[in-house]
Amino acid sequence: MKEVVDKVNQVGKFFTNVDKVHVMYNRIANAQLKRPAVTRFATNFEMLQSLKTGRNPLEFCVCNAAWVKKLVRGEQVAAFNAVTHIIKDTNGFWKDVDKVMAVMEPVVKLLRLVDGPRATMSKVYFGMGVVVAKMRTLECLSEVEKADVEKNLMYRWTFMTSELHCAAAFLDPEYKTHTLRDTEIREGFNIWLYSWAPSELLQNDISKQVDIWVQGLGTLGTQNARDQASTKTPALWWKAFGGSLDLLQLQAIKLLGQASSSAACERNWSLHQLIYGQRCTKFMPERLSKLVCKN
């Protein structure tokens, strides 16, 4: 995948930076090729998508009679030849682009869900399951490639997931039928439950409310509640139908109302270091906390 992304970047850089080549491409194509950017989300995927869309104009350019080495300066001839070979698909380049995009597309879709503005913590667990299942059915990948891709995905999943994701998944009304038999989700939910529930209430009141949720009794099992389980956000659903579970409802709304993120917590510490390092140590704790949280 890295080799393909590097080749795509090479093509995009050449067609963007060489003026005569850039003008030739713009005369043929209706859209410009995108280049990778550090701050742009899913930058490599967007670059690949842009190149795939512009495949016909690119091939038209390199097959044009005007596509000669005189278009570029002497030091750019090597890049001219390399880009020409890439676009002419001498080594199955476009097939590799399709393969990489097939792998990246469901992953990018999940990342957009995770890092989106909505409270989607309860959707992450099932979204990852969909991605893994999709990878196993890709015909463009060999069995060895599927194993490598799944290994990388599960490594990232282990790094990113937590008991909060399991607890949120357990309390999401949309996926209720999928969570009752999942031991990992139930274990994560129990850990979350013991983290906040007072011991004197856990054995009786809260346990009874959890059983009511699992069995779907009262207002939780009405037809209206089932119909809105997939249309309402989980937090609003609990606010509307979980009134009889007063102890569990409040905590469920708090949990299901949280946004998720695929970024590592270490980024917050590095930001903290930039704000409160050796060169800048005069902030009061309250001011420092506001700066870190806002960023």
Describe the structure in your own words.
The chain is elongated and about 85 Å long. Helix 3 (43-53) crosses helix 6 (93-114). The mean pLDDT is 87. It is 68% helix and 0% strand. The protein folds into three domains: 2-92; 115-262, no CATH class; 264-295, no CATH class. The protein has helices at residues 2-17, 19-28, 43-53, 55-62, 77-87, 93-114, 121-136, 143-160, 163-171, 176-179, 183-196, 199-215, 223-228, 234-241, 246-256, 266-275, 285-294. The longest helix is centred in the middle third of the chain and has 22 residues, at 93-114. By secondary structure, it is mainly alpha-helical.
Question: If helices are DSSP runs of H or I spanning 4 or more residues, what is the number of helices?
Answer: 17
Distance between the termini: 32 Å
> Overall mean pLDDT score?
87
Query: Structural class of the helices, strands and pairings?
Result: mainly alpha
Gyration radius (Cα, Å) is 26 Å
Question: How would you characterize the largest beta sheet?
Answer: none
Order of helices and strands: HHHHHHHHHHHHHHHHH
Beta strand count:
0
Task: Record the SSE blueprint.
Elements: H1 2-17, H2 19-28, H3 43-53, H4 55-62, H5 77-87, H6 93-114, H7 121-136, H8 143-160, H9 163-171, H10 176-179, H11 183-196, H12 199-215, H13 223-228, H14 234-241, H15 246-256, H16 266-275, H17 285-294
